[in-house]
Amino acid sequence: MSATVDPARVAALTAAETAAFVAAHPACAAEATTAREHLTYGVPMSWMAKWPGPFPPVVREAAGAHFTCLDGVEHVDLCLGDTGAMCGHAPAATVAAVARQAARGLTAMLPTPDAAAVGAELTARFGAGPSRVSRWQLTLTATDANRHVLRYARHLTGRTKVVVMDFCYHGTVDEAFATLDPAGRVVERRGSIGAPVPPSLTTLVVPFNDVDALRAALDGGDVAAVLMEPALTNIGIVLPEPGYLDAVRALTRAAGAWWVVDETHTLCAGPGGCTAAWALEPDVVVVGKTIGGGVPVAAFGLVPELASAIEHRVELEDIDVGGVGGTLAGNALSTAAARATLTEVLTPAAFAGMTARADRWADGVQAVLDDAGLPWHVTRLGARAEYAFAPVPPRHGAEAAAEDDFPLQQLLHLHALNRGLLLTPFHNMALMCPATTDADVDRHTEAFAAAAGALTA
Ligand code: PMP
């Protein structure tokens, strides 16, 4: 709970904002009633129930940084499909490539020439500088990419355990639904649904930014891989302290464990994610969501030695039933989308503009906090920024989780939604796409000032 805001005031404001939302969205409400008859939760995927308000806006169409709901309300989209639409909605080059490819065949379980081009482009971004990541495989989701990497890591190292960061998120990867209890034991993360086995059998959990804890976890000699984001982004943003990622590299190398850097969200740091921006040397990079401009496609890249070890240590006869793969992975449509998106949409020039907009957003939010006397902080990571309900940035996931205030967050998101602004439902986070304008950002700053005023009046 944020110590700075009275919960009764939050409840009263939420009631007023809920009434305003319902009144302004009769067509979305009618659609939600119909959907309830046919869809569990009334939505096609359960996460879509987590929006603030009694039902979500239903999208009529989306373009660039905006979408319009069935009630004709135009919104600035600062969620951007929780990174899936970081390129903006319907980017022209991706749409053209998809249309071209759709007419030439969607999937054949055979490569198209776009595949090698995508691999080359990913290497140019994530295999530059000290990184040697340069051999890629495509999947449909970042979840699948992470799963495949963990299987390969176990297979090649002959070890059983995976290290993850406390309060991480890497998709629906069983090993990652683990957290530390107050006594420091590995337990199921709160809300974990139907875990196959107790996570302590598969997973060691360490706090982010804690070198000693990682050293201790690797000491047992049973760790196949350390899977982590270079900056946590799924419990709010937690940035690495100076020297931390160098220590992770040195410790994993010494322990013979793979260092897997999941850049699915941190791609916001620049064209080659944090790997390029911070000159990291991972064994494996995972990217997803964004690289197809919204079309499902993800990838994992390996250093050459690991790629060739895989080629030698997996029997061709069993390759289709070994636990790594996917019938539609690397399909012609996704691959065409990825090629166009990487080469024509997510360009270095686009990142420069996105980062400038994110800085403008962060500056605006900080100025509002200062004016209102709210002791919260703002964190930036390239094209992404967020505010959190504590005066100083957290060092690790548990600290970040302790700062959370779900009712206050829901209110702020609903308040924004009623002013035509969509924030990422899981955090107070805003992401910029190439089409986001200064005016879009300023619209948020203005609405946020009104929210801060209502909270502190
Ligand atoms: N890795 C990270 C860091 C993520 O944030 C996510 C999704 N939020 C994933 C992997 C999984 O992506 P997907 O749901 O597209 O499989």
From TrEMBL:
- List the InterPro entries: Aminotrans_3, PyrdxlP-dep_Trfase, PyrdxlP-dep_Trfase_major, PyrdxlP-dep_Trfase_small
Q: Does the keyword Secreted apply?
A: no
Task: Name the coenzymes or cofactors required.
Answer: pyridoxal 5'-phosphate
GO molecular function per UniProt? pyridoxal phosphate binding; transaminase activity
Tell me which PANTHER family the record gives: GLUTAMATE-1-SEMIALDEHYDE 2,1-AMINOMUTASE, GLUTAMATE-1-SEMIALDEHYDE 2,1-AMINOMUTASE 1, CHLOROPLASTIC-RELATED
> Which protein family is named in the record?
Belongs to the class-III pyridoxal-phosphate-dependent aminotransferase family.
Q: What is this protein called?
A: Glutamate-1-semialdehyde 2,1-aminomutase
Presence of keyword RNA-binding: no
Question: Keyword annotations for this protein?
Answer: Pyridoxal phosphate
Tree of life domain? Bacteria
Q: Which SUPFAM superfamilies match?
A: PLP-dependent transferases
Query: What is the species of this protein?
Result: Cellulomonas marina
